[in-house]
Amino acid sequence: MRFNFNVVGPASFSLWIAPDDMRRTPRVRVIMDRTQEAVLEAWVPYPQLKEVGWHAHGTCGFTLNGASCPGLDQAERYDIYDADTNILLYRHRASAAYRPSRVLALDYTINQDNYVRDMLFAEFAMAYFGIHDIHFDLLRCIIDIKYTDSLLLHGSLLLKRYEDVVLTGDYVKTILVVDPYVELAKRILWLRRMAEIGKDPAQAWRVDHLQGPCAFAAGLDLGSLSALRKGFDRIDLATYNWLENPLTRDLSCTHPGETMKPGHWTLAIEALSRFHVIGHQHFWSAYTAMLADVLGLQGPTLPERRVPEPVLELAETLSRVKSAIGLVEMDINLSDKVYTIIEKQWDKA
Question: So which domain of life are we looking at (predicted)?
Answer without folding.
Answer: Bacteria
